[in-house]
Predict the structure.
Amino acid sequence: MRKSNYDKMPATVVNGILWKGWESIRKRLAEVHAETNGSQVWVVECYQGVHHEELMRELQALAADRFINTQDLFKSAEDIEAMTYPYLTDDRLFGRRAHFSYTDFLDEEKVNACRAVPDLPSHAQAQGRADEIICETERLELPA
């Protein structure tokens, strides 16, 4: 029998400084915040497998001036299902080509409400999963 070459514990070598544990991460972010007089915008992009609830809880503990979870800017699951239903088939591998762009999945009212917040800096922080959206809110382009 052939031995599997699947790496169950993949790793990437990183040159630089790493902080381990939420306490040390929050401490370092607070230091950066103080060093820059709070003038920075932090954007967090996540991939599959990240514990999003834990990440959001820990980042919100920093008491940012503005925290935008971009998951909240999307249409409801029901709306997206209705929108995409005509392109689905019973075949598990093949469907029909869809014409959607990323912004088709955003709720225009929610995005506009986010943009309308007076304390929103010229480029705002946003947090969301990479399989959903990560961008600066002023860059969320909706069709006219």
Summary: Residues 122-144 have pLDDT under 50 and may be disordered. The radius of gyration is 20 Å.
